[in-house]
Structures are given as C-alpha cells and as structure tokens.
C-alpha cells in the first residue's frame, strides 16, 4: 500500500486557510489563536498515530 499523505503540507494548508480567514475578518485574533491551537492538537494527534506504523522486516536493522 502506498501512503502519500504529507502531514506537514496538510498543516501548512490548514494554517494558511486560517490566516486567510483572519485577513478577511472572519476570525478575530483570539478566535484565530484558538483555531491554531486546535490545529496543532490535531496535527500532533495525527502524527502520533503515524509513529511506528511502518517497520522493516527484521526490526529495520540493516547489515
């Protein structure tokens, strides 16, 4: 199975969308900060699920 999801790129896209909403006046500074905090939590939760999901046969030790 090929998994081409880039969590860092996802974060950048989501953060840029929040910045654009703030620039358009859709989010006040406090709302923006809360949204970024939530985004960081989602990012951390997502990347924690990726840790250790792929392991090479034989424990990943190369000769």
Give an overview of the whole structure.
The model has no long low-confidence stretch (mean pLDDT 85). The chain has helices at 7-23, 29-50. Helix 1 packs antiparallel against helix 2. By secondary structure, it is an all-alpha fold. The protein is elongated, with a radius of gyration of 17 Å.
Extract low-pLDDT stretches: none
Per DSSP E runs of 2 or more residues, the count of β-strands stands at: 0
Q: Could you spell the SSE succession in H and E letters?
A: HH
Computed structural class: mainly alpha
The oligomerization state is single chain
Apparent shape: elongated
Average pLDDT, to the nearest integer? Answer: 85
Task: Describe the main β-sheet briefly.
Answer: none
Percent in strands: under 5%
Tally the helices: what do you get? 2
Overall radius of gyration? 17 Å
Keywords:
single chain; about 60 residues; mainly alpha; elongated
Task: Please give the structural blueprint.
Blueprint: H1 7-23, H2 29-50
Helix pairs in contact: 1-2
Q: Brief overview, please?
A:
With 63 residues, the chain is mostly helical. The chain has helices spanning 7-23, 29-50.
């Amino acid at each position: 199975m090929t998994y081409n999801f880039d969590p860092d790129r996802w974060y950048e896209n989501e953060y840029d969308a929040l910045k654009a909403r703030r620039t358009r006046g859709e989010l006040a500074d406090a709302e923006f900060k809360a949204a970024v905090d939530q985004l960081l939590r989602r990012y951390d939760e997502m990347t924690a699920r990726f840790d250790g999901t792929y392991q090479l046969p034989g424990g990943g030790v190369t000769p």
